[in-house]
Structure formats: structure tokens, C-alpha cells
Amino acid sequence: KRPKNFPPGPPALPILGNILHLRIQNPLEDLERLRKSYGNVYSLFIGPNLAVVINGVKVMKEAIVTKATDFAGRPQDLFINDVTHRKGVILVDYGTSWREHRRFALMTFRNFGLGKKSMEERIHDEIQYIIKTLDKNIGKALSPQVMFHNAASNIICQVLFGTRFEYDDDFIRVTVRCFTEISKITNGPWAMLYDSFSFIRNLPLPFNKAFRNVETMKNLLICLVNEHKKSRVPGEPRHFVDCYLDELEKRPDDPSFSEDQLIMYALDLHFAGTDTTSNTLLTGFLYLMNHPHIQERCQQEIDKVLEGKDRACFEDRHNMPYMQAVIHEVQRIANTVPLSVFHRTTKDTELMGYSLPKGTIIIQNMNSVLEEEGQWKYPHEFNPENFLNDQGEFVKPEAFMPFSAGPRMCLGEGLARMELFLIMVTLLRKFKFIWPEDAGEPDYTPLYGITLSPRPYRMKVQLRLSQ
Ligand code: HEM
């Protein structure tokens, strides 16, 4: 039964709740349909757990920005919490350990210049590998999925460990397999059954693979960290892991900082920083190939601003309003993390006049903001004009929140924005990307998962002459 003055929602079945109202393979259309029936704040039972789905800028802001701390928790009794041992940062509940770890990462990223190499340089180093792959494929059509995935993974590995990996390296091969399997199980029926029926949790059922996979990844990381310890000089950090080990020595009595925590933290950051960025890049090139006039206009602006310079730097974005508009439009249309990460109320609170008890799961329907009518000039089409004013200047409407907002907002926003800008600008300057003649009409409907990804496609590459 729904509590008193709780948001409305469809009738729920005992034990199963509203599971049958949602297609597990892709619940996004169902969430949109329920919004039309019940409004911008409605409730669902996810198995036995009470959840509220929030839609539209007004509701989203009241919850995660205005009443920030009331809504800054994370669910703690779901399958994925048991899998990740309640460590790391993404799924950790609102509290001291989360706050301290978040602050530590933000500070480390901000001061990045570790081992005398800036974040920008690390990204440019990795771009050279993308260029090498593209150079080998001039005049041909290649599948860019692995290339972009590998690039995003390597950039975060450069930040974390100061290392990059070839795609057939054991570390990357095993990590990618483990992450993919965990995401599939977490999004599938076994995780739902695990959440609904506690008595099955100790049985030898398929969800156990997720627990085994986390152990495998942890062991790989422990080896890597031990390797780094051998060459580490305390106080002279080369990368994130060194910084954490320094911090650990400064906090001998702080139980929330530990090597075990570092391992899960590194896993969290690697996971959060890979598919998100690579799927956004894939969406970008899919749209740019099929909107050649937009691609050409980007190239004209890039040529003009970078004339005489050997490479782009992140500061150049201030002179590239059109490119900025295109990247933001790509992020808007990509809707890369469609349900954000579930939040949870940290105390009894209110939202739009409804009463929400402590512990209510909060699900952000990101599409309801990124395509909200009244917030965008062209809510349902790919059009950079959504981010340009009448003077052609770049403007960012408040409904642009692919990184969410408030205290739990994406911790990697700065890094992700730098990657998207430097990669897209550098590649568009050097290459022309063409939708292959034999590829038929593009299918823009994405594949559903924790992140949305474009359907696999091929891209034809030509060298540009006008540089
Ligand atoms: C285009 C790329 C990206 C998008 C669209 C994106 C989006 C998001 C979203 C929507 C959330 C949930 C925020 C919330 O719960 O309210 C999130 C959280 C997070 N993201 Fe990202 N992200 C991206 C890239 C990255 C990168 C590169 C990193 C790695 C450094 C990263 C690290 C994190 C972390 C650690 C959290 C959890 C923050 C917390 O719970 O306090 N993300 N991201």
C-alpha cells in the first residue's frame, strides 16, 4: 500500500509490485507512458521497494538541487550494493565516507598535473592512437565502437594508473567482459528476483556470476596497485592511485580510507568513465555523418580558430560557439545515462506537495528534461540551434542536465567535457566522416542499458585537405 499523501501510480501486485508495468529490456517508453497517466511525480513499487519517478526541470530541480541533501542518498539494499560491497563512490550512501571520497577525487582531478603531465596532455596522447587507427582506414569503412571504447577506457586508466593498455591486453579484456556481464545481470530479471526474494540470495543462481566478476576485477587491480607501490615515491604522486596512497598515509586513523576502498574506487571511476564517454562520442559521429552540413560548419569554425596552431586546447572552446553547441546537442540527444543513478531520500521530506518517507528510491527520467517541451527550441530533433541565441552565441539552457545536478552530480563532468571537446575537434579537423553508401537509412533508436548506446554502425573516413 502506498503511504498517505504519496505520489500516485499504477496499482501494484503483492511481492512483484509494478515490475509487470515495465519491460525489463527497455523500460523507458513505459516510464514515459506512465508519466502521461500520472503526471511528473509518480510512484512505482520495484519489488517491495517504494520508488518515485521524477520528470521535468521543475520537479528535478526542487528535488536534487533545492532539497539537495534530502535527496542525496543511494539505495543500499539492492543487488548491486551487495555486488560492490557498499564501497567506492557511485553507489555509496550520503555520509562521511562518500563526502570525503568525492571531495578527494574532485581535488585530485582539479590539480591534475601529476607526473608533470596535465589531463589535456594525457587526452591528446590517447587521441594519437585514434588517429593512427583512422589513418589506417582512409577510404574504407570501419566500425568505431572498439576504438572509442578503448580510447575512453585508456584516458581514465591514464588518470588512475598513468598507464594505457592495448585492446587485447588481459587487464582490459577481462575488465570489459566482467563489466558487461555485471551490467547485463544488474539490468535483468535475476537482479530483480534477488531484490524481491531474499531467501534466494544464497542459492547457486546465475546472479552469482556478478559477485565472481567483481572478485576477478578486484584481484587484477590489487596486482596493478602492488606493482605501482614498488616504484612509488611518497609525496611525489604520478597518478590517482599514488595520490590515494599518499592520502592514506595522512589519515592512518580514518577508517573510511583504505586500500580496499581504493580498489573499489578505481573500479567505479573506470566503469563510470568508459561507456558514458564512448557512447556519447559514437552518438556524435552517427549524427554528424548523417547531417553533413553540420559537420562542415564545425570544420569551418575549427579551421578558422586553429589556423596556425598545431593542436586544439580546451580553452579554444570559448572561441568555438558552434562546436560547443554541437557537442552539447549531441549530449542532449544521446541521453547517455537515461535513468541517472538511483537516488534515495535521506529523511522524511516533501516534493511538489507530496510526502516522501525516508528511504524512498528516486528515479530521474532524464529524457523528460532533455526533451522537455517548452525548454528547447527543437526538443525532438537534432539541432545545434538549441544552444545558440539570435547572435549565434553559445547558451546553455537550464534543462541541459545530462550529468544530473546537485551534490551527486557527475564527478567526472570536467574530464568528460574535456575529452568530448578535444577528441571531436581534433578528429573533425583532420578527417571527414561519411555514412557508407551501402549502410542504408541510419537507425537512431539506441540500445538500452545503464548507458544508452547507438546501434553498431560503420563510418567511412577521408583525409581532409583544407587544413
Ligand atoms: C559523457 C559522459 C558522462 C555522463 C553523461 C555522465 C553522467 C552521469 C550521471 C547522470 C551521474 C549520476 C548523477 C546523480 O546521481 O545525480 C553520474 C555520476 C557519476 N559519474 Fe559520470 N558521466 C559521464 C562521465 C564520467 C566520467 C568520465 C567519470 C570519471 C571520472 C564519471 C564519474 C562519475 C561518478 C564517480 C559518479 C558518481 C557521483 C556520486 O555519486 O557522487 N562520469 N555521471
TrEMBL record:
InterPro entries given in the database record = Cyt_P450, Cyt_P450_CS, Cyt_P450_E_grp-I, Cyt_P450_sf, Cytochrome_P450_fam2
Q: Which cofactor does it need?
A: heme
Give the binding site residues for heme: 410
Q: Which Pfam families match?
A: p450
Instruction: Enumerate the UniProt keywords alphabetically.
Output: Heme, Iron, Membrane, Metal-binding, Monooxygenase, Oxidoreductase, Signal
SUPFAM superfamilies membership: Cytochrome P450
Query: Taking the first listed entry, what is the main subcellular location of this protein, grouped into a coarse class?
Result: membrane
GO CC annotation terms, alphabetical: cytoplasm; membrane
Q: Where in the cell is it found?
A: Membrane
Q: Per its record, what are the GO molecular function terms?
A: heme binding; iron ion binding; oxidoreductase activity, acting on paired donors, with incorporation or reduction of molecular oxygen, reduced flavin or flavoprotein as one donor, and incorporation of one atom of oxygen
Gene3D superfamilies named in the record: Cytochrome P450
Q: Name one GO biological process term.
A: organic acid metabolic process
Name the PROSITE patterns for this protein.
Answer: CYTOCHROME_P450
Query: Which family does the record claim for this protein?
Result: Belongs to the cytochrome P450 family.
Name of protein: Cytochrome P450 2F2-like
> Where is the organism placed in the taxonomic lineage, from the top?
Eukaryota, Metazoa, Chordata, Craniata, Vertebrata
